[in-house]
Amino acid sequence: MRIGSLFSGYGGLDMAVSSVLGGAVAWHVEYDQAPSRILAHHHPDLPNLGDVTAVDWFKVEPVDVLTGGYPCQPFSHAGLRKGATDERHLWPEVLRAICVLAPQLVVLENVRGHLSLGFDVVLADLARVGWSARWGVIRAADAGAPHQRARLFIVAYPAHLGHEWGGPSRRWRARSADSGDVATHSDDARQGRRARRLQLGQPESDASGGGVPTWTAWGDYGPAISRWERVIGRPAPSPTEPGRTGAPRLAPRFVEWMMGLPDGHVTDPAIGISRNDQLKALGNGVVPQQAALALDVLLKGTPYDVRQGLTTV
Q1: How confident is the model at residue 215 (pLDDT cuts 50, 70, 90)?
Q2: Chain segment 259-295, per-residue pLDDT in tens
Q3: Which residues pair with 250 in a beta bridge?
């Protein structure tokens, strides 16, 4: 199965799709230099088509699944919320790719604020070209992460599939997932299975070091840190590092760990990007475990609500 990746970033959404559905990425579309270097480091043989506005989709290899975390700045409460008038409003480019490539499934991600600005246009555009969608908001915390990071996830598919889409007869159902395989805050065993499916590394024999429970070093944050260590199978690195003046500053390796990535996925010195670029890429990225949980739920059509978590419509 072939996956086409729009607005790839460091590839977090692609990692989730591949873990749940199988298959591999055929090509990326990433314009920014720093995440492009991350992609080139991990996938040196895959083409990066660059600027999404300049791609001739009629000349691009067709794919079965199209992914895309299209820019959130037009919709984010952290910005000016200019919507379609923002120069970074690139949803029309996603629609253009869908219409030409005609994949069997599209997986999208954006900020929760998109629900109140611009999402009605997305649904109307999809309906206009004969597509249906399921969507929901899920937090990284719902997959076990020690931070909230609520995000909107959308799966879209040709409307003629109707109720058959995602059912047991369709190959798009969550791979190797049974009806109860949905992570919750208290279900570390299921979270662990998902982390292993993502192949994000094996657990350390003693993640806390010296047999001392992790939370003794993290205060009130200890239980959340310990939970995520169990989910992704590696201990938390130091949250800070010395800055240029010697004063502590946020460590990109810690943010990388918070995002559920393998050690060095973004911060490997061989990639050759600055600390600021590392933090920007991580801040714009997708938590793979969070996206995998959303896919498990949306692909199976199972309602999911953990402390006002995912809501399907």
Answers
A1: low
A2: 999 999 999 999 999 999 999 999 999 999 999 999 9
A3: 240
Nearest to 238 by CA among 265, 218, 261: 218
Mutual angle of helices 188-197 and 12-21, in 10-degree steps: 100
Domains and their CATH numbers in the chain? 2-179+288-300 (3.40.50.150), 188-283 (no CATH)
Using alpha carbons, list the distances in angstroms from residue 19 to 16, 25, 105, 173. 5, 12, 15, 12
Whole-prediction pTM value?
Answer: 0.80
How far is residue 2 from each of residues 27, 106, 195, 212, 277, measured CA to CA in Å? Answer: 9, 12, 22, 45, 29
Token reading at 287: 């938590």
Q: Is 287 left (phi over 0), alpha (psi -120 to 50) or beta?
A: beta
3-state secondary structure of 58: helix
Is 61 in contact with 102 (CB distance < 8 Å)?
A: no
Phi and psi, residue 4, nearest 5°: -105, 135
pLDDT digits (tens, 9 = 90+) for 143-170: 999 999 999 999 999 987 754 555 433 4
Please state, as a whole number, how many other Cβ atoms lie within 10 Å of the Cβ of residue 209.
10
